[in-house]
Request: fold
Amino acid sequence: MNAFPSRYEPAGIEEKWYQFWLEENLFTPDVKSTKPAYTIMIPLPNVTGRLTLGHILNNSIQDILIRYKKLTGHETLWMFGMDHAGIATQVVVEAKLHKQGKKKEDFGRDKFVEEVWKWKEEYAQIIRQQLKKAGYALDWSREQFTLSDEYSKKVIKVFVELYNKGLIYRGEYIINWCPRCLTALSDEQVETEEEPGKLYYIKYPILRSDEFISVATTRPETMLGDTAVCVNPHDRRYKRLIGKRVLLPIMEREIPIIADDYVDPEFGTGALKVTPAHDPFDFNLAKKHHLEFIDIMNPDATLNALTRQFNGQDRYTARKKIIEQLKEEGFLEKVEDYRLPLAKCERCNTAIEPRISKQWFVKMKPLAEPAIRVVNKGKVNIYPKRWVNLYNYWMENVRDWCISRQLWWGHRIPVYYCSECYDPDKADSEHGIIVSEEKPNKCISCGSSHIYQDEDVLDTWFSSWLWPFATLGWPDDTEDYRRFYPTQTLVTGWDIIYLWVARMIMSGLEFTKQVPFTDVVFHVIVRDEKGRKMSKSLGNSPEPMELIDKYGADALRFGLLLITPREQDVLFTEKSIDVGRKFCNKLWNAARLVCMNPDQGADTLPEKMSIYDAWVLDRFNRLLDSIESHFVAFEINAITREIYDFVWHTFCDWYLEFTKIAPAGQTARSLMKELIVMLHPFMPFITEEIYHKFGFPAKSIMLETWPGKISVEQDISRVDHIVRLIEEIRNIRGIFNIKNKEKLTIVINTKDEVQSFLNENADVITKLGGLDRIEYNQPVRESVASIIMPEMECYLELTGIDVQKEKQRLLREIDFLSHRIDEIKYRLNNPSYVNKATSEIQEREKKRLEDFLKKKEGIQRAMEKL
Reply:
């Protein structure tokens, strides 16, 4: 047994044990092991910057599961790697260069990519240090990067395979375009915020008439690209105008009035301006009605030469001038305030512009259908269950995935063009296009050797959707792939349910014919005090490493888990981490007390034990049952809270106090071992340190075995009565503001058997309850506070009691009991409950009802005696 300092100082201890775990290879699984495999794939951190508290929460949950499964006899692999994060990383590197007065164009593509690789190396090292400092049991020997040469080959292979299957195609569609990043975005890379705006009502004159038809728009600059006005065919106001033509203001271009059921007669004026090249719904209308497509914008959201006098102007500058001109010419009918949903690039916060563009797409319907089936059949389980509805909604309404990005950082699309016979102006032509894993030597159409590669790169998610199997050797039949795939659990935030989770299920089924994981666990989002998600781009997360320096990694992890319920996003405050620190100190002090007391038993349980030892072991058994059921449902917050309550209250506040008074404590040392093993997945550093302070035999606590239930044959129910009695006495002291040093007398009316037990344990009751003496079966005197319990009625004698205050307390308790009685009666009389609940559960409810009724009757008797 080693010296046990009076204070726990995490600095130094945490670094020591992490280095020890690394040196002993405790994070690296044995492929040859016959133990059941348990694999978790880390949600890849982006190399855009330092990790946030959201990453700490996410990784702490994974670390708990990995360490728990290792303790329960599994061969565990927690796969680590990082994501190149195409657009996100390019944006931050461009911002860095901008501060230096430089642009990426100053470098050229190859040199700029070299700059991004430098950034990647710098921040990859920072991320590794952060994860190690937090204590995570990641297998560093298998680290992967989504833009490594090995991984990139697999990404390219998948593109070519999907193209050959007809699931990747190129087409012109309306896409989300970021004018700042100059790239297409998928729907999931766009964040929509409601902002105050304007609704402009513009009059379009009807040709050969003095009439106008008014349209309402929030983007008046796009009117310059209008090619029709559309109304609902059943709208009586406009039926007679269908087929006529209007003169587009400013542009003085004739456009038709068409009819379609798509138009909502109730919105605006009921007449819709149709801008096919700048609105996804108008795009579809134009296809259906064979309208012209007029693209009026440049990639940077300035207006182009087709807009005449507005050529080169920013879209918002042009908007103001267009409104001014419409007003001068009498075409502006009115302007109303209007709250509009504004779509923005998630990376740079620029308002996106719907834009017609030639891009590469994946057909998603054929991939989504089997992915829906595996979730609905329970082959992939989602926790909490309510997220299944969102998953199904996304998948049933899936749109084709735009996978091409106009960036320099990323996987170059493996498409090659022939300079001699490829015509870029023919959108539907595949002549002169070669899709290949390797650059071809010549054109397969004309034989020319003048070949060049597509400039675009693939969407980041096109590489990360392969993560579960591409990291384990696929497409080769490797030992890792056979041993650890499919994986078991994915832990992530619900906000990427479609961006990543659903796509991994689709790719797993498509390329491995297996689900990539069996359980998906969604945790809540950590938000700042303004309710915003903590993110690198907002810079609104406290620096986790500073919190670890201040409180320790265990305190940060445990405190964060305590405040994060299963289904409700949480607002972070630093006070929660201080709760974790105090818990570390409580555990340390308890362990020190047990370790330094020679009367606290041996490493194994004694044959005979006191009733207090039996009581704490019974409570431990209940805790173990509850924790294991919570682990099955991935209810990590519930486990954290129950362990906290047991250690702080049951073990420290009650059991250790009992051992100071009564003949007890023979189980303290062995129970402490079970407790720190149970706590180890949650607080790895302090538990490893305590384990070695006690001199327990294993090389590391990580190599211990998860606790099992301990046989308890004694009836410990009357210890519960003692605990309850002392709690009630303390509660009454609080109500009447009676100081602890003031000794009280209690009268207990009960039967002889109970009196005998209480006499045997009188020291515990009097010392912990602050009593002067206990009297039995005496007449009730005046000025007493009543405590009604099973098998006994207790009357705490008080001086100067406020009778009305005591009556109010008892009335509140009666009211509480009445509500509980009504709830149980309702359940027991509900046919649905009776049909679903087991007989054991129903009997337990009936017993509770009986106890509540007896207690209520006893309190009512006490009210009469008060």
Q: What stands out?
A: The chain has a mean pLDDT of 91. The radius of gyration is 35 Å. The chain has 26 helices and 28 strands. Residues 839-865 form the longest helix (27 residues).
